[in-house]
Fold these 4 entries.
Entry 1:
Amino acid sequence: MNVLVLNCGSSSLKYQLFRMPEEKVLIRGGIEKIGSDDAQHFYKAEGQDGQGSHEGTSTSEILDHREALRQVLHVVTRESGVLQSVNEISAVGHRVVHGGEQFALSTFLTDEVKHAIRDNVELAPLHNPANLQGIEAMEDVLPGVKQVAVFDTAFHQSMPPEHYLYPIPYVLYKRHKVRRYGFHGTSHRYVSSRVPFLVHRDLMNLKVISCHIGNGASVTAIQNGRSIDTSMGMTPLEGVMMGTRSGDIDPSIQGYVTAKEELTQEDFASMLNKHSGLFGISGLSGDMRKITEARAKGSARSALAFDMYEYRIRKYIGAYVAAMNGVDVLLFTAGVGENSPLLRRKICDHLTYLGLEIDVQANDTGKGERIISTSASRVTVCVIPTNEELMIARDTQLLVSGLESWGK
């Protein structure tokens, strides 16, 4: 079964084609600047039958997602030769950011499901409309092929009410569904599913804290395989300090700053989302690599930004140790979590009260999926590269295979 996985943004899309159940990536790529006359398409087709990989790039006019997907199918079938025909694509899996309270599992895309995604646009105005664009464009370009929605929020639907509700008038939840939803759920679900292979224990008997640390960052408490709390809230702005997002702040700051600086509500929201976090404190960048380099060269503001970032992640880890009355596994994933040994070491150096002991060599020089704590450590610390696309492909295959079996 060949499964095409799509992640559509407002002016971009990323894709991977998997051969399932082998979980082999046949081709991966992306298109940027959709809606312009100089859209850029790049791809890498993996080697077939022992042959080397093939890469390609092009620039052309791509005015909408339908044309972008036509290009993807052209590359998949003709330019790269990965498939002989689009008829070899068995199903399409879509990343959808917000499923609200309606979806705790991945599901086939129907008119009712699309309507629910539209209903949640106001909760994810930057993401759900783009996800819908990709879904509807694929329906036009590849009609009749089964499509599946995999929701970033679904994994966190296991949180209990005392964890997902805010201490504001309950009527706001009943009327407007104001509550914690959480994000990065597909990533947290994938990396936690890899834990048993590393620690050789059943996930259903473990307390795991998963740190997805990229430009956007979230920390999740996973008890017995289920998310019980997560740092992102009703929107991805809440939680730990991020690349350009503020994370948690005093709500009263909005009124104070907007009055002092004569800002609109939209200006203030833009400031918190695009001009805060590492970027806001350092004045340099939201990229941890640049922050680390500047810190090493003596930049006081970059050092301050790094220290704040580490501290706020560590605070959430401590909170989730309390929430679960302990922790068995601490894991790091995503761009910064996977690639910053300095950040991991600084965080772990302040968690020795848990009996946690990091293996400096494994942390600093190791590669890929691995344990970075010592054998004497009472908490196992892991680095697990995330693979949200594979999780989407697995869910899509599972649903389509189940439907085919039922049909027989």
Note: The chain has a mean pLDDT of 93.
Entry 2:
Amino acid sequence: MQTNDYTNMFYVNGRWIRSHGTRQVVVTNPATEESLGRVTLGDVTDVEAVVDAARRAAPGWAGTPVSERAALLRAVAAELALRQEEIARLETAEVGSPITLSRRAHAQSPIHLFASAADLVERSEPDETIPGATVLREPYGVVGAITPWNYPLHQSAAKIAPALAAGNTVVHKPSETTPLGAYALAEAIESAGLPPGVFNMVMGDGATVGARVAGHPDVDLVSFTGSTRAGVRVAAEAAATVKKVSLELGGKSPAVILPGAPLRPAVRRALRSGFLNSGQTCMALTRILVDRARLAEAEEIVRDAVADYVVGDPTDPDTEYGPLVSKAQRDRVRDYVRRGQREGLRLITGGPDRPAALSRGYYLPLTVFSDVPPTSALVTDEIFGPVLVIQVYDSVGEAVDLANRTPYGLCAGVWGADRAEAVEVAGRLQVGQVFVNGAGFNPDVPFGGFKRSGIGREYGRYGLEEFQQTKGLVFGADAVGCGGYR
């Protein structure tokens, strides 16, 4: 069957079943404003079914040898690879990402994440012997994975692959805004032959289905990616059952360009990060910090760079920037642009109106305001769109203070005349990850936030360990053969 055949069904206990819910949402192509179809939303009865299936499957999956779990994860990666181009085009249609980005981030990345999770769990040392004791690493049991709309398959794989590798069963609640990729993932998992109940998927909104997954007493860990406001609600729901919560939340990441650092490549790289996926990226560098002496030069570099970008049809391989994901998101971001204008901020490129060359679609111009004070909402709020700001500093100490003066602490970029200078400043930033001198995303490096950007880490062995809990076995002196004690 094709993905669209399942959009009124959920994947539960190894088979596709119809939802108990009756509400539907229309999935819209944000570039054309045309319908891609309807998806049925589940209700709490559906949540009970998926959690029950995951709970019953948990002991058997936890007891499955690591080599068998790893082989099944590699089978999922192989199934995704077979559908790689189809998935890329599907995600371009529902997210609006340019096809070149979809091929890399939406289609290739999940393949890597499933394959690397298999490698990691095979290489990991689950038990640790210390004098008089052994420390075991065990799965939590049932993991609730609640994933966002901006990178649907990538974010799903970042949770599901290590959770399964660690021996947990999974209940997946994807975003109802961009749901089609989740069906493709469920199909791949079904084709790979995972045992019934090990992976389950239910569609629904956050207020009903997401909240019930987070608060369900038979869900042992909930892993959520999304806005900080939604993450607070997830944590509150989970608190009643004292379960572990992993939250990857918002960001307002600074790009700190130190005096003496090459300005043009730094500004252009920061713009690429800030505008990636039309600015709908939690780790985007959305605040460019430059020393006052080079402000005018930085503004000129921004104008020249933005003028060269190709904004348009996301199915065209030459397109670098597509639409925002929905009308609601476009309107929300446009309101911030208009707010900046009302505040009297200096607009150096872009604005609130759709580019004249585009007659339809949820597009906004790539927009940059300059010399923006730290109290502006455009500095403090996560806008999640193609709207960046330039901030000015008079000393490196002030640059660090400005970089840290937000409630967020997800990522940052630092450019210095040499690596040692950049590393020293990076160490003073209150964030979970720093890109030094133009470095890019590395899926083996721990990723997660300080402050209101989240709790926990994803990717690499750190992401695997997030889904493992430790158990200490302490041996008495009268035990036989226990670490040297007699």
Note: The CA atoms of residues 11 and 186 lie 7 Å apart.
Entry 3:
Amino acid sequence: MTEKIYEYKDDNNWFIGKGSFANIFSSFGEGGREQEISQLGHQLDQLIAPRYEDEFNQCVAIEVIKLQSDVRLIQFALEILNDLNNRQFRAVHHKGTVLIIEGEKLYSVYLPKTGVSLTDFFGQSETGFGDTLLIATKNEGKTKEFRKFFEKMGITVENLNDYPDLPDVAETGMTFEENARLKAETIAKLTGKMVLADDSGLKVDVLGGLPGVWSARFSGPDATDEKNNAKLLHELQMVFELKDRSAQFHCCLVVASPDKESLVVEAEWPGYIGVQPQGENGFGYDPLFLVGESGRTAAQLSSDEKNEQSHRGLAVKKLMEVFPSWLNTR
């Protein structure tokens, strides 16, 4: 069978192409630009081929005789790929970039070497785009911990203080997961945003797992951190041996988004309950929670130390392992 040859020629561009095992551009007539043209082929290969290696029957090899427009070369390559593989890719100009699109899906963006202005590209300030994660809490300390993790992924973190008109969600669940789901899924429906809720609490073995899901309100309706800690010490006042004061911080994280299955992860942090508060860095029961066998309380750890080993830190690590793939599910 005769190999099919493709050609494009105008006053400023001249390309000849054929099917190949990889996307390769080489230069026949543009002396001194061989590396630049080869890089264009490599970029096309990076933009497209790896995503469709199980679907593409063929890639494309193009010999460049004359080149003025990188975009026209990419369009020519897409036309060949479409013909060879029965696809419908197209290159669309947008604010100095080229969007590689098929149907209603955007697959890749080709950028000029000089880059483009974010404001020009998105038509708004750079803070007005990108994924936003709403943390279902008004606790700034908790928000700060989550922000350290998610900002590394380029995700803007907000909390309920940014949405004062939202109603409170009653935590009526009997488990940490039930409460976290209630908060995340309810707020996601109300706001249309991606929402992360956690239900975290302290489980003390000798108290049968209390305060558990009632950790935040252990001392009653007007509970504060100080009142909760005082009640816990009161409950344990006749438990003298440290080994009998074993406990775990438990964290359940739920990420919810409208019309999407929620993501759930859980983790625990083992330790003991001390006999008096120590440390200034934490919140909640941190001043009483002795970390493992270290003799230090959670409130005596730096933020980095705490994030590395805490129940919330461990849960977030688990979350980070599955979060990117969850974002891409429908």
Note: The radius of gyration is 28 Å.
Entry 4:
Amino acid sequence: MTQLYESLETYLEKTKAQREELYKWFHQHPELSLQEAETKARIIKELETLGDVEVVDVGAGVVGILRNGDGQTVAMRADFDGLPVKEDSGVEYASTVTQVSDKTGQEVPVGHMCGHDMHTTWLLTTISYLAENREQWSGTFEAVFQPAEEIAEGGKDMVAAGITGKIPVPDVMLGQHVMGALPLGHVATNEGISFSQASTVKVTVRGVGSHGSMPEKGVDPIVLSSSIIMQLQTIVSRELPASERAVVSVGTIHGGTKSNVIPDKVVFELNTRCYSQEVEDHIHASIERIVNNQAAAAGAPEPSFEYSDRFPVLDNDRDVTAKVTESMQTLLGEERTETFAPLVASEDFPDIPNAFGTPYCFWVVGGFPTPENAPGNHSPQFVPELHPTLEAGAEATVAALCPWLAV
């Protein structure tokens, strides 16, 4: 079991410059969700250089399959989309990319401000290492490169494109994410529910337009929306038990064009997060109840609701996670291996293993020298330390693979 891992240090040292160049290329070429054509093409190019890797096109994503005799099948996922965020990291390889959004039609700055470039480099490193060290493992490895994690559509896209019929059913699926909340180079796992499920709710509050000096002739959707937004804050504080963790946040609000014009509508968007479908259903029903009732009380036209960015709860299989954790403690060392409490962050990683009915484990990797000062994911400053982060994710992956693939 340890031979597969012990050869990794030499490989990582030998390929340091190559891996750094690859990561910097991804970092400097971010693309928005479901618009990642150049990124996907580079991933395919890298897989094809390995020779005997089968490259399977799956919707907007791609899978590299490396077969190496009898044994179990393990899938590992990396996401590769960027964010509409202007980078402000100060690194010499910072992104200066802009892209026209398919969703809005507007040109926006794009940056890899959530570490997906690091995840992609880790996975390409892993499959390259396995291809070069076949004598130390047996089975099948599937490198799943997934688009559009940021909008919770990438896993769904690959499932809709037929991934469950295009690649062998994995016995286990693994994933990881770089974060700033734990020490540089450390790895943390958690058994059971680990990431919250989440949704975006777009609410359109309708009114009756009028002159600002004649509010009695209209129904003011700005005043109405203000009242609604305040009332929405009581869902968590007054409708859920104190032991239940949940979030209801209003992140955008748009309405009106001029100070003396009462508009005919206001649009705002909420983000909801919790750890069970039952609680999410309750929150969404409460949102609709509050909005509809306050609109009716104001004599306003009927509001409307749109749901999107729906992330599943991430529930790590306990047996799989126990094996992964034990292997990491043995090979990385207990001083680098931690556990984490359930996060209110969300991930669409479970969509693909859930489609297969495959148990999974997803862990986090520290990428910043001082966690207390590290920027949060999606911050314009979120750029992990190059080394040893580039090595840590590969080390964690190979350690996690050992219980299933090592000979």
Note: The first helix runs from residue 2 to 6.
